[in-house]
C-alpha cells in the first residue's frame, strides 16, 4: 500500500492560518481514511511521512496537528517529532485503557507537554471523568461546530483553554 499525507488548514477567528492538520490517505483513494489501517499504525505511518518530508515543509512554517489515539501516546515514534512544531489531537482510545496503560499515557503527555508540544482534546472525551486529568496538559479543546454553544465557550475560557471548532465544511459554518 502506498500512502501520502493530506492536510487541511486550521484558522483562527480572524481567518488567519495558524496550523495544518494532517491525515493519512492511500494514493488510490485520496478522499477518505484507509479503514484497513488501525489508528496506532496510522500514527506511525504519518510520523514516518512527516519525518521524510519535514515538519517545516509540511506545516509551511506553522505547527502540524495529527490525530493520535490515547493508547498510541506510548508509541516511541512520537519522540522523533519536533515538539514546538507539533500539536497532538488526542482522540478516543482504540483499545481499553487499564490503569497501567492510562498512567503511561498521562506520563507521556506530561513529558511531551514539558518539551513544548501542544495538545488538543476532543470535548467528547471529557465526558469520561477519567480523562478530565488530561486537561492539565491540553491547551485546546476540539468540538464539532454544531455542538458549539455559549456555555461551552464560557467553560473553555474559565479553564484557560482555546476552542477548536471542527467539521466546518463551508462559509456558513465558519460564520
How many beta strands in the DSSP annotation? 7
CATH topology: TIM Barrel
CATH architecture type: Alpha-Beta Barrel
Oligomer: single chain
| Poorly predicted residue ranges | none
DSSP strand content:
25-35%
Strand order of the largest sheet: 1-2-3-4-5-6-7
What is the general shape?
Answer: globular
- Write down the domain tally: 1
Care to describe what's here?
The structure is a single chain. The protein is of the alpha/beta class and 175 residues long. The protein has a single domain, classed as Alpha-Beta Barrel (TIM Barrel), CATH 3.20.20. It is built from five helices and seven strands. It has helices spanning 39-53, 55-59, 99-114, 150-159, 171-174; strands spanning 3-11, 17-26, 63-69, 86-91, 118-122, 140-144, 162-166. A seven-stranded mixed β-sheet has the order 1-2-3-4-5-6-7. Helix 4 (150-159) links the parallel strand 6 (140-144) and strand 7. The radius of gyration is 16 Å and the shape is globular. The N and C termini lie far apart (39 Å). The mean pLDDT is 89.
Summed up:
The protein is of the alpha/beta class.
What is the strand and helix layout of this fold?
Elements: E1 3-11, E2 17-26, H1 39-53, H2 55-59, E3 63-69, E4 86-91, H3 99-114, E5 118-122, E6 140-144, H4 150-159, E7 162-166, H5 171-174
